[in-house]
């Protein structure tokens, strides 16, 4: 605890603040302690004597740390290592056709989610001068947040400058007959699975469905994926979903696309706890087909946590969009709120459901809160969310990985950009051949022909994740292509794909 925050509340032995503290007023009150909430609090007060508090209903660190990004990537990495080893002469004879050590993989995952203990996160917050109040928060008028603790006690917090809402999302379960009653797995179960069901039906075809399918099959499940879109990963360039599907099928996954689940039957659904199989066999009916499995995973998108956060108490009853997200302006201030005190960062504003984008928004919101508190102007590059406008990077950690930034070719055309696209086989650069002789992958640049700059890039292949930031710099910096020509990629790295792509477009004049 810093002196500044200690004066705002009395600390409990675990570092969280307690009811009955002398003053329940902070400069900034943040509702929701995921990474965006944490960062908003940090950036709003750092280098000042302002105070901040995070209200958290579950664990500080949020969905990302315990039930999403971190456990999913922990479950995916061992497969990458094993698959690389299986294809590397000099190593593959040592590995043979052995599978993963499932118990060790799950144990490492448990270490990475810190066994669902958020003590170190609370310690970080306190070290940054941020208090933590446990409980469920909701607005209760302007600059006021009411917190209901697990024991039912209610406490009212006041903010001098700002309230930041960062309550995120939960898994959506579509209204399919029998589905809810079957107690299906959602992202929380599959990222925290303690058992490996022999047969799993994965419903969805987006990022969660494709990543989860990758680790489920690697752990030994027989997976049937049922998606209602015509391709996998439909927000990406179509070749990305095609390559991911091709690899899934090679590994034994059954993929049904343009297929809608219409009915689910499970005779003895039981709530056996997170990550355990929730009862006996379940039959999933879709179109003309059906499949009987030991567990069903629903990965069909997210629902914003905007329902019970007191928007009505500040005149924002109709402020959410039709999906329930709470729109903001580029200062991350809620559209339509009176005065400049209410901010939304992270998934809840619906701009980009990604941790790194939520944290970026939080850095902007924090800087805006600090500037407004100090009466400074909001002119300048630090105070506006620009990256959410067509410059969002994302890596999907499937086999192969999919890394993209900015606009797909189709999105760019839909926006009226005069587009030219170049594509190249990632396997034909020396750097990837050295990684794997059987390397398969593809890269694509989307070029705004008039401005001669990149507006999008996609890389698909093993280990492409780290290639992405070069493209993000080029897209955000609007680096002219003739200038990129002088950014020489090292030999022999996968980055030489940049040279090949630019050669396809070489036109000195
Ligand atoms: C399986 C999976 C894998 C993912 N992998 C990645 C990835 O690799 N990379 C990536 O960038 N993104 C990934 N994402 C997306 C990422 O998890 C989210 O974008 C991110 O968690 C959003 O952060 P947030 O703080 O806005 O919301 P959340 O992480 O949902 O956090 C919200 C917090 O608010 C708390 N809260 C909610 N309501 C209240 C209330 N009323 N009072 C107090 N507290 C409240 C919750 O308990 C929670 O701690 C993944 C998502 C899933 C489902
Ligand atoms: N590596 C990462 O960056 C990462 C990993 C996981 C999740 N995330 C984020 O989390 C968010 C949620 O991911 P998600 O995959 O749950 O949602 P999503 O919106 O990306 O995909 C949902 C998919 O489910 C399909 N679908 C919807 N209803 C269906 C139905 N009734 N039957 C069959 N299919 C159906 C849709 O066609 C869509 O493809 C995403 O926005 C994503 O960016 C990111």
TrEMBL record:
Pfam families, per the entry: Pyr_redox_2, Pyr_redox_dim
Disordered as annotated region, ranges: 1-23
Cofactor note: Binds 1 FAD per subunit.
Binding site for FAD: 73, 137, 347
FAD/NAD(P)-binding domain mapped to chain residues: 27-356
Composition-biased stretches (Low complexity): 1-13
Gene Ontology MF terms: dihydrolipoyl dehydrogenase (NADH) activity; flavin adenine dinucleotide binding
List of residues binding NAD(+): 204-211, 301
Named cofactor requirement(s): FAD
Matches recorded under InterPro entries: Class-I_Pyr_Nuc-Dis_Oxidored (IPR050151), FAD/NAD-bd_sf (IPR036188), FAD/NAD-binding_dom (IPR023753), FAD/NAD-linked_Rdtase_dimer_sf (IPR016156), Pyr_nuc-diS_OxRdtase (IPR001100), Pyr_nucl-diS_OxRdtase_dimer (IPR004099)
Start and end residues of each Pyridine nucleotide-disulphide oxidoreductase dimerisation domain: 392-498
Similarity comment: family membership: Belongs to the class-I pyridine nucleotide-disulfide oxidoreductase family.
Name of the protein in question: Oxidoreductase
């Amino acid at each position: 605890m810093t002196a500044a925050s200690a004066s705002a509340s009395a600390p409990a032995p675990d570092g969280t603040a307690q009811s009955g503290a002398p003053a329940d007023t902070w400069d900034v009150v943040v509702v929701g302690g995921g990474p965006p909430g944490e960062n908003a609090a940090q950036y709003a007060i750092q280098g000042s004597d302002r105070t901040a508090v995070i209200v958290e209903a579950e664990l500080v660190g949020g969905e990302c740390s315990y039930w999403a990004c971190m456990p999913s990537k922990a479950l995916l990495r061992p497969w990458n290592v094993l698959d690389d080893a299986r294809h590397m002469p000099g190593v593959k004879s040592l590995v043979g056709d052995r599978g993963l050590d499932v118990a060790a993989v799950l144990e490492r995952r448990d270490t990475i989610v810190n066994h669902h203990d958020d003590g170190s996160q609370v310690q970080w917050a306190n070290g940054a001068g941020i208090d933590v109040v446990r409980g469920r928060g909701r607005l209760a008028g302007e600059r006021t947040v009411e917190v209901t603790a697990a024991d039912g006690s209610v406490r009212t917090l006041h903010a001098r400058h700002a309230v930041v809402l960062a309550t995120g999302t939960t898994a959506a379960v579509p209204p399919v007959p029998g589905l809810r009653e079957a107690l299906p797995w959602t992202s929380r179960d599959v990222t925290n699975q303690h058992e490996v069901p022999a047969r799993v039906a994965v419903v969805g075809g987006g990022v969660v469905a494709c990543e989860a399918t990758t680790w489920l099959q690697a752990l030994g499940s027989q997976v049937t994926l049922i998606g209602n879109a015509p391709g996998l990963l439909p927000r990406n360039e179509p070749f990305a979903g095609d390559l991911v599907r091709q690899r899934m099928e090679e590994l034994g996954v059954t993929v049904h696309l343009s297929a809608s689940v219409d009915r689910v039957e499970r005779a003895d659904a039981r709530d056996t706890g997170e990550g355990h199989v929730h009862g006996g066999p379940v039959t999933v009916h879709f179109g003309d087909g059906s499949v009987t499995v030991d567990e069903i995973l629903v990965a069909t998108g997210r629902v914003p946590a905007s329902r019970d956060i007191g928007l009505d108490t500040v005149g924002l009853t109709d402020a959410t969009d039709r999906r329930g997200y709470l729109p903001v302006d580029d200062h991350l201030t809620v559209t339509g709120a009176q005065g400049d005190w209410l901010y939304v960062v992270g998934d809840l504003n619906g701009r980009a459901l990604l941790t790194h984008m939520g944290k970026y928004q939080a850095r902007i919101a924090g800087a805006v809160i600090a500037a407004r508190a100090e009466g400074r102007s909001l002119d300048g590059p630090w105070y506006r969310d620009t990256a959410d406008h067509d410059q969002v990077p994302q890596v999907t950690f499937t086999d192969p990985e999919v890394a993209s930034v900015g606009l797909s070719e189709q999105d760019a055309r839909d926006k009226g950009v005069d587009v030219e696209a170049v594509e190249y086989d990632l396997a034909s650069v020396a750097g990837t051949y050295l990684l794997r002789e059987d390397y398969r992958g593809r890269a694509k640049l989307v070029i705004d022909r008039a401005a001669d700059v990149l507006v999008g890039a996609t890389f698909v292949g093993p280990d492409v994740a780290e290639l992405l930031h070069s493209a993000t710099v080029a897209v955000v910096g609007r680096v002219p292509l003739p200038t990129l020509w002088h950014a020489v990629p090292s030999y022999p790295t996968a980055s030489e794909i940049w040279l090949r792509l630019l050669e396809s477009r070489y036109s000195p004049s």
